[in-house]
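chain below, 221 aa
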Amino acid sequence: MSSQISETELYAPIKAFLEAQGYEVKAEVGPADVVALRDGAPPVIVELKTGFSLALFHQGIARLSVCDDVYLAVPRGTGRRFQRALAENTRLARRLGMGLMTVRLETALVEVHCDPGPYAPRKSARRSQALLGEFARRRGDPNTGGMRGRRVTAYRQDALACVAHLAAAGASKGAAVRDATGVARATAIMRDNHYGWFRRVATGIYDLSDDGALAIHADDA
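prediction:
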């Protein structure tokens, strides 16, 4: 969003949105940007910012000490970068028990992306198993936490083990590579040839490609 946008531009659309639902709305009440009341129900607080930021979430968390129904509001942006930020920040708001709104300033349209409430995450058994499987197959600890760029995965380590065996033994059957290296998926790794290190010389028999011969000596392999 443009740096020229101010938080005050969000107020009128949000006030109208809440008033249409029967709320009485006032701005800058105590520490809150927007407070809405309806029929003696607990208050609703909305915190305004011109974009997603840590400060916005800090303010929202602080307002949770006042009431349970806290929304964060930002202008609605465009493009894939904003859509990604919106999805990530909606998940974060939901985890923290807050709601999230966006405002299309050109049309004054307010959209609610999540409402306040207790967060009940759904665990993914598939992702959990994948994480534990990768941990179990990883040889040693070849990466550094927080590193950028290519990471050494268990799959890459297995592929390099196959490369090392073929470099020493020459063309071999997949089963022989599996038995010698302990890599249960050796045949699949050589067949899929994700890194371009292998070539099939006969049915079920694989050897190194030119890139594979280089990989065994590469500093970054």
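The chain has a mean pLDDT of 90. The chain is about 40% helix and 20% strand.
thats it, cya
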